[in-house]
Write a structure and sequence with these properties.
By secondary structure, the protein is of the alpha+beta class. It has a single domain, classed as Ribosomal Protein L30, Chain: A (2-Layer Sandwich), CATH 3.30.1390.10. It is about 50% helix and about 20% strand. The longest helix has 14 residues, at about 55-65. The model has no long low-confidence stretch (mean pLDDT about 95).
Length: about 80
């Protein structure tokens, strides 16, 4: 399994557009998928996003937290 970022919640003032752009840039999601992830997070769902490396997951989690999301990185499990 690939490393992933787990988005578990958000704080008032979450930067929705910036969060969507961040998911597109770091996770390589298309606009629709990135927007769906952001909308699901705002609706109270826990969102998991697979990324290519643990470093990318840590960067994405850190930047998402700065934008107002509650996020953490999880390493992928070895085969």
């Amino acid at each position: 399994m690939m490393p992933q970022v787990v988005l578990t919640g958000w704080t008032p003032g979450l930067k929705k557009v910036s969060s969507t752009k961040l998911l597109r840039q770091k996770a390589g999601l298309g606009l629709k998928d990135a927007k769906d992830c952001t909308d699901r997070l705002l609706a109270g769902e826990t969102v998991r996003v697979a990324v290519s490396s643990l470093a990318t997951a840590e960067d994405l989690a850190r930047e998402a937290t700065a934008l107002g999301a509650d996020a953490h990185a999880e390493p992928g499990s070895g085969g």
